[in-house]
Design goal:
single chain; 232 residues; Beta-Lactamase; Arc Repressor Mutant, subunit A; 49% helix
Length: 232
């Protein structure tokens, strides 16, 4: 089957909120990758919308917690970022902590496709491979096709009026409700420490990394008053 036929079959009958996940599954079916995730660009942390597997979701969470990785770079540039070998060389040196954590769970390469372009980029489609290597020209065209369909699907979703810290547009927050806790936690940490939102998010990420947890897990504890950040 042609790639477009596989994509069409994968999303047929799916509701708007299901389409990101269906497209992640289609990407894994069409490409030599072990997983895929889709994240919405944000002024703070990327908002994970869906993933093809638990491992793909974990890798997305790792990048969000670190604030670093191919996903972050692709969203900032509005251009594809390919980490073709996280085990050594340039890619391992560019994102050393992410590379270490990705290879620890069996991922050796990551391909991050922008959902949009350098003018308007709403997020990224991230593809994870368990062996080093580049995508062929045909595979790259397929990845670009999936990313293009994902972009259209996300932009077609109904918008909401409210926004998060720093004016972040939460029009997709219904698809990523757990991420709302990050915004709540950042606000609480701002009050507890008397800092701005950037510093509060940095403290949240640092604590998560120090204790081997995700930023979402720590945010949940903050919101439910199981963790408090005290001034030094």
């Amino acid at each position: 089957m042609r790639a477009s036929d596989v994509i069409a079959a994968g999303v047929r009958g799916a509701g708007p909120a299901e389409i990101p996940g269906k497209l992640c599954v289609a990407a894994v079916e069409l490409l030599p990758v072990a997983g895929a995730s889709v994240s919405l660009r944000s002024n703070g942390m990327p908002v994970q919308l869906s993933a093809s597997s638990d491992r793909a979701a974990q890798l997305s969470d790792i990048q969000a917690t670190l604030g670093d990785g191919p996903c972050t770079a692709a969203a900032a540039a509005g251009a594809a970022v390919f980490a073709t070998d996280l085990t050594s060389g340039r890619d391992a040196g560019r994102w050393p902590v992410f590379a270490q954590q990705a290879t620890a769970v069996g991922i050796r390469a990551v391909y991050s496709m922008p959902l949009g372009n350098d003018t308007v980029c709403v997020g990224t489609l991230d593809l994870y491979r368990d062996a080093p290597g580049e995508l062929t020209r045909r595979e790259l065209r397929v990845a670009e096709l999936v990313a293009s369909v994902m972009t259209v699907a996300l932009m077609a979703l109904p918008r909401r009026e409210e926004s998060g810290p720093d004016g972040d547009d939460l029009w997709l927050s219904g698809l990523a409700s757990t991420h709302d806790e990050v915004y709540q936690a950042v606000g609480m940490i701002m009050v507890q420490l008397g800092v701005d939102s950037d510093e509060a998010l940095a403290r949240l990420r640092a604590h998560a990394f120090a204790y081997g947890r995700t930023a979402l897990e720590v945010a949940h504890d903050v919101v439910w008053h199981r963790k408090r950040f005290d001034r030094d």
